[in-house]
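Researcher: Let's do a round of design. I'm pasting the structure tokens now; please hold your answer until I've finished.
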């Protein structure tokens, strides 16, 4: 399964590597912004930590934007660099979803590390779902992800493990190879989402279902 998804990802990236690498460079620069605030030694540590945390939260939609660009590439859709900022159009929902998701994972981690890791896989499709269904509620997106990942968590784990060699290559090249590895990884997981979604027909939920 992993090899098929990777092959499909390479096919989707064919002819679009330049765009993908350029977007990763911009994405990396933006994600590095919080680190700039840590260089001001004249400010108290607590103040700088607060600033860095706030800036990091404000940049969460950019990370989601990269995920959505990877989805577009995986589906052969037209996309542009400025689509990185598309999630800011639903800023509060994106931030709220990220916070609630992390809160649930944190609660599971309080029990044991392994359940926390397992739940992180259960919730990994939430932002993919949000892109396809922007009107969906925060808890419903998390619940939908949990249901879609039933029976697929091990597949996702093995898919992640299959990139360890690539990650080592990225480290050996002092991060340079990640300019190509990141699109490859992201588009592959977008393919994974589309495959899982294609296997299921979401049913409307009239009653509350616990997202955890």
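Researcher: That's everything. Go ahead.
Model: Designed sequence:
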């Amino acid at each position: 399964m992993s090899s098929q998804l990777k092959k499909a990802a390479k096919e989707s990236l064919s002819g679009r590597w330049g765009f993908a690498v350029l977007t990763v460079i911009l994405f990396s620069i933006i994600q590095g912004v919080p680190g700039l605030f840590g260089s001001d030694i004249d400010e108290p540590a607590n103040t700088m930590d607060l600033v860095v945390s706030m800036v990091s939260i404000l940049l969460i939609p950019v990370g989601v934007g990269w995920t959505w660009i990877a989805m577009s590439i995986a589906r052969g859709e037209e996309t542009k660099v400025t689509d990185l900022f598309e999630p800011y159009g639903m800023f509060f929902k994106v931030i709220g979803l990220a916070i609630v998701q992390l809160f649930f994972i944190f609660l599971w981690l309080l029990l044991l590390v392994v359940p926390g890791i397992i739940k992180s896989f259960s919730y990994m499709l939430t932002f993919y779902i949000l892109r396809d269904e922007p009107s969906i509620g925060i808890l419903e997106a998390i619940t939908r992800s949990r249901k879609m990942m039933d029976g697929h968590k091990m597949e996702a784990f093995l898919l992640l493990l299959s990139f360890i060699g690539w990650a080592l290559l990225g480290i050996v090249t002092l991060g340079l190879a990640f300019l190509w590895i990141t699109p490859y990884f992201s588009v592959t997981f977008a393919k994974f989402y589309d495959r899982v979604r294609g296997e299921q027909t979401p049913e409307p939920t009239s009653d509350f279902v616990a997202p955890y």
